[in-house]
C-alpha cells in the first residue's frame, strides 16, 4: 500500500472513531438517569469489557513508572469531569447545542498544546479552529441567563476544556502504551471517583436502561474512544481535534434520525463551517504526509 493510501486509511479510521463517539449525544439524551449515575455504570461496564479484551489479546497492562501512572490517573479524573459536564449539558438542551458547545475544544487545544508540550504554534490549525468556533456561534442559541440553553453552553465549554487537557496529557503516553491499556486505566479511575453515585440512584431505573447503557459502554467508550486515542500516533492533537469536528455533524444527523431533533437554518450554516474546517485540515494533513 502506498504512503498516500495508508494516510487516507488513517483519516478514515479517525472519522470512524469520531462517528462512534458521536453516538454519545443521542444516548445521553435517551438515558434519563442522573449524569453521574450514567457515567458510573458506563465506565463500570466498559472496565469489564476492556479487561476481558486485554486478557484475550494478551495486552500488557503494566505501567512502567509512578510518573506515568500519576498522569493516567489525572487523565482519568479529567475524562470523568468531561463526561459528566457534557451529559449535564445534554440534559439541559439538545444534541446540537451540547455537541457544538463541546466543540470549542479544538480551539482550546490549539492554544494549550504549544505551551504544555512545547511544540511550535500551527497558525493554520488556529485559524481553522476559529472557523469551527464560527460554526459554533451560528449553531448556539441566544445567550440568556434565564434559560437552560445558556447553562448547557457553559457546561459544554467546561467539558471541552477538561477534554483538551486530557488529550494533551495523553499525547506522549499513547506513544509508549497500548491505547486500550490507557483507556482501561482511565475509565477505572472514573468508575472509582463516581462510585458514591450508586448510593443515590434507583437501581430499578438502571436495569430499565441497561440496553442504552451497554451500547454507550461498548460502542461509544470501548471502541470509539480507543480508536480516537490511537489516532494521536498518526496526527498532532490539534489536527485530530479539528478533524474530529465532524462529530457535531454526525451527532446532529443521529439526533434527527432517532430523536426527531430537526436543526434550524443557523444549524445548517454552522455545520457547513465545521465541515469546511474538517475538509481543509484533512487536505493539508494529507499533503504534508505525502509530500
Automatic annotation (TrEMBL):
Keyword Lipid biosynthesis (UniProt): no
InterPro entries for this protein: EamA_dom, EmrE-like
One Pfam family this sequence matches: EamA
Transmembrane segments: 12-33, 39-56, 68-89, 95-117, 124-143, 149-169, 181-201, 213-232, 239-259, 265-286
Keyword Transmembrane: yes
UniProt KW keywords: Membrane, Transmembrane, Transmembrane helix
EamA domain mapped to chain residues: 16-140, 152-280
Superkingdom of the source species: Bacteria
UniProt xrefs under PANTHER family: ACYL-MALONYL CONDENSING ENZYME-RELATED (PTHR22911), MOBA-LIKE NTP TRANSFERASE DOMAIN-CONTAINING PROTEIN (PTHR22911:SF79)
Protein name, as recorded: DMT family transporter
Source taxonomy: Bacteria, Pseudomonadati, Bacteroidota, Flavobacteriia, Flavobacteriales
